[in-house]
Amino acid sequence: MSVSVRHAVLGAISTLALVAGLTPSAQAQDARTIAAAEAVRDAAMADNIALDYVTQLTTRFGPRPAGSPSETAASEWAADYLREHGFKNVRIQEFPLVGWERGEESAAIVGANAQRLVVAALGHSPGTPAGGIEGEVVRFTSLEAFQAVPDGSLAGKIAYVDAGQLVPMQSGAGYGPLSRIRGAGPGVAGQKGALAFIMRSAGSDEHRMPHTGTTRYVNGVVPVPAFSLSAPDADQLSRLVGYGEPVRVRLSSTARTFETTSRNVIGDLPGRTRPEEVIVLGSHMDSWDLGTGAIDDGAGGAITIAAARAIADQGRTARTLRVILYGSEEVAQPTDTGNGGGAYLRSLSAEDIANHVFTGESDFGADRVHTLQLPVGAQTGPFAEAANRVLYPIGVLRSSVPETSGGADIGPIVRAGVPVFGLQQDGLRYFDLHHTADDTLDKIDPEQLSQNVAAWAGLLWLVADSDVDFRAMAPATPAP
């Protein structure tokens, strides 16, 4: 940054501080902090740690299903990687898990219209009996229509829900309605007496490449074998059913569950003056087995590690930065204990939780960040203005909508009261790749990856080297 530009920025921030009624010493500290945040941001734009991490992770270990030997090996390697890059107190936190192995799967239409279907077994669904199962397909266009039929009315049939293609949106909002079908579908199928459950993949692509994902346990089990169809195969099956003649499908799966463990990998960059105050940067280590988990969520670990490292390269901050690579984010369990996020929360005392001052999660690929959402009560004021000044030059706009949940991994500590932020990424192509064999390293754009690192690093410096208290900003009774 040139001297003239630096002086202009410091002058603008000093003016902002005066308007906010801050003391001269607070004004000077804010000016120094924002200038340092800009320096960290600019240095991070030239980052190469993020690409190095995700390249090594996906190349050395490939897919990392929750509780698998590859997840275990990757966590050991990642712990060493953190140590090599200056992180302290690096530890692995192990917890029990029911794992799932895909085995072999197949599907085909049988009879006069005989043809193969491209499917993926859904996570944690049981296998079929040896030789597979066969039944007439009953098609529904919504979960609600499926739920409405009488219990037991689908005995001997295969339930099929085709709720249409996921609509690409920058926010990824189209995913929720379809992932809801995936989670609940097998349980509804069991209630209605169906032999099995199939659905159109929860994806926005048109490739013959099905999207997997977890199902939900009901009373400790996933009741029936469950599969997702690639979009072209879903179209094909729906057209045949639409002709009004019975369509029979044969399904086979050797999927199985097993007792295992998963792991969180945790590393700190201890604070200079207030090390007990912790900022958690979250992502997850596990991935589905079809691809190599580059965008979901190797990229998230890469972004958070590189952002923390970029900050450390500029000097120690007052507060501690803690990177957590959570285990087993992708899968449901017979008893919901929060998986990696729950295991981390249970390791904390009430005092520890009170000392967690800020958290965010990177779990939406590697495409550019476009919006900042701050904790409740922090949408306006000096901190919000400072964050806007640091992030706007790299194309990140402040939102008036607060972040309230974060994501699956940090969700448990957020619900325990830790203030949460969101750096929202461009999701237009995310669900083309998500949970498919196409989730591979070549889909990551290095420039957009570095912009993510810069956004995280610039924002976190403002928090980590200050005494901003987001809990104090939140209203006593949040608005509905």
Automatic annotation (TrEMBL):
InterPro entries: CPQ, Peptidase_M28. Residues 264-457 form the Peptidase M28 domain. GO terms for molecular function: carboxypeptidase activity; metal ion binding; metallodipeptidase activity. It comes from the Bacteria. GO terms for cellular component: extracellular region; lysosome. It is found in: Endoplasmic reticulum; Golgi apparatus; Lysosome; Secreted. Pfam families: Peptidase_M28 (PF04389). Residues 1-28 form the signal peptide. One of its GO terms (biological process) is proteolysis. Keywords: Carboxypeptidase, Endoplasmic reticulum, Glycoprotein, Golgi apparatus, Hydrolase, Lysosome, Metal-binding, Metalloprotease, Protease, Secreted, Signal, Zinc, Zymogen. PANTHER family: CARBOXYPEPTIDASE Q (PTHR12053:SF3), PROTEASE FAMILY M28 PLASMA GLUTAMATE CARBOXYPEPTIDASE-RELATED (PTHR12053). Homodimer. The monomeric form is inactive while the homodimer is active. This is Carboxypeptidase Q. It comes from Brevundimonas subvibrioides (strain ATCC 15264 / DSM 4735 / LMG 14903 / NBRC 16000 / CB 81) (Caulobacter subvibrioides).
